[in-house]
Amino acid sequence: MAGKEKPVLDIVHQNSIHVETIRKEQRYQKLHTEFSINPHRTSDFIDAFHKAHQEPTKKYAMPLTESHEIGWLSAPLIPSTRNDRRFHFSRISTDVTIHQEKALRASN
């Protein structure tokens, strides 16, 4: 073989090549830290932003994951009113509760 043979590189040489490559990449790397909105597409951006921040029930017609299924239908099954005696219990005093309240007040 008349061609040049590649020298075998040890770990130190491989590491120095890697360090040099990283330095070259960092020298030419430019970070863009400023953000601006394209004025010609502002309404599209705002619509997408608002849609991304909606709750899943308003974004999708059906739940996408199993965790969405829990609590997907969050509306109450029965409309709540203050006159419904099944859910609102008013405080009723009887002779037993009146006696107990007087006994508790007297002991203090």
From TrEMBL:
InterPro entries reported for this sequence: CFAP144 (IPR029214)
Cited Pfam families: FAM183
Claim: Cytoplasm is one of the keywords in the record: yes
Cellular compartments annotated: Cell projection, Cilium; Cytoplasm, Cytoskeleton
Organism superkingdom: Eukaryota
Alphabetical UniProt keywords: Cell projection, Cytoplasm, Cytoskeleton
Cellular component annotations (GO), alphabetically ordered: ciliary base; cytoskeleton
Keyword Protease: no
Family of this protein: Belongs to the CFAP144 family.
Name of the featured protein: Family with sequence similarity 183 member A
